[in-house]
Write a structure and sequence with these properties.
- It is built from 6 helices and 33 strands.
- The protein is mainly β and 493 residues long.
- It folds into 3 domains: 175 residues, Sandwich (Immunoglobulin-like), CATH 2.60.40; 130 residues, Immunoglobulin-like (Sandwich), CATH 2.60.40.420; 138 residues, Sandwich (Immunoglobulin-like).
- It has a 7-stranded mixed β-sheet with strand order 14-13-12-16-21-18-19, with no helix packed on it. A 6-stranded mixed β-sheet has the order 1-15-23-22-17-20. A 5-stranded mixed β-sheet has the order 2-5-11-10-7.
- The chain is globular and about 65 Å long.
- About 3% of the residues have low confidence.
- The protein binds CU-O-CU linkage and copper (II) ion (CU) (2 copies).
Length: 493
Amino acid sequence: MLRRDFIKRSAAALGIAALGKYGLAAPAIGAETVDAPFSRRLHIPPLLENSGSAGGASPFSLVVQKGQHEFFNTVYTETLGYNGSILGPTIRVGNGENVRLHVENGIDQVTTVHWHGLHVPARWDGGPHQVIEPGETWKPEFTINQQAATLWYHPHAMGLTGEHVYRGLAGLFIIEDEVSQTLALPRNYGVDDIPLVVQDRRFFEDRSLAYVRSMHDVMHGVLGNFLLVNGMLKPFVEVPRGVVRFRLLNGSNSSIYRFYLSTDQPFQVIASDGGFLAAPVGVQELVLSAGERAEILVDFGGSSAGDRFRLLVDQFNGNTYEAMELQVADMKAEQTAILSHLREQPRLEESTADRTRRFAMETMSGRGMGMMGGNRLAINGKKMDMNRIDEKIPLGSTEIWQVENRSATMMQLPHSMHLHDVQFNILDRNGQPPVPVEAGRKDTVLLWPNDTVRLIAQFLDYTGIYMYHCHMLEHEDDGMMGQFEVVNATGTV
Ligand code: C2O
Ligand code: CU
Ligand code: CU
């Protein structure tokens, strides 16, 4: 999507000017207040893996805790993190590996930990049903049963997801397999294989996180005016001369981002949410909605030590950020060429589907509450109810989900659709085949106003209750979520 189209669609989607009108009790600060940009080195979350090196071995331990984080020089902001003041360690496992975790809830609210993108039994999915009470420890155990991919984990307690993520709870979950380990790709974590968790935040004058939800914030999402990369404002990272891999996560609550380089230099997209694309796709920009991931390769082979690039991010409310600086170091990269082929990635055929379900993601107009107050976010006219199963899916089915972003009001909002349990293929978007970067395995898909996306998925291996929802977290928390239950083919679990 070209920059002007992105901005045009974004502006249309917002309907009314979003920024500057926070509806906050105290004013939020403006974004000009970042001092000494690009002077602090990018934080690389520590690795938790079974190899016996740093981080120890399974059971992996995650402690949900309160912290104080230095977003601004010498000012400490209250945050939440896993094993630290913000974000969490990167969990890296192999396909087939048995993973055990101990998740301790050290805060005074209930929380959960959901493995976004992971195909695991429902009871270990970490959705709203798997509550961890304050002081308790949850001990999930599952076997990795899917191909190499960049996934993530985050809280998912009913009505609290947005707030918990905003305060800092999120981490990456990387799966490797025999293909990812034999392809000539950068895989030296933090050196040429660099995780980038991108999020936006707004702050009150005292630099506390401004997470409040006026009706305006619920509709448009809590949108920040500061951009964080791995919990930092305007960091820098050194890159070797050659091919560098970035694992991008749009970890924001509700923002849509368009990523590009200051030089408009092309880069290669090699993976979407659920794994490698069949082959690298060359682009100059990439759009990710909240919850989506991509792996990209940038070739710094033609650069000299000391060259600087900026990673730029347009946010859909019209803001543009110089998110971070990439400084070319006097170091040669291990990989200097870009592969032409990655892995066979068969797509599910429409003809194999057992049935089609339809989902309307709606902004409905309520009565008697005024236009803003009366708007309600829903899927198929319903708001989330933990006691209601919305869809029953026989185990082993292949299904087409036809998802429409349909607004009955003047307010045209973007949405996204995320399914737990599965990775899907996009069959088509508004009748057109998916663009190459969306043609691979996906678990979250953006829908601009009036878009219709048909996706196709197989529901295999596990029965039980899973969620589907808009991944704009303020929408999710407002009830734009439903439950599907995978049932034994006879109809009962
Ligand atoms: Cu990333 Cu149901 O969530
Ligand atoms: Cu999920
Ligand atoms: Cu939504």
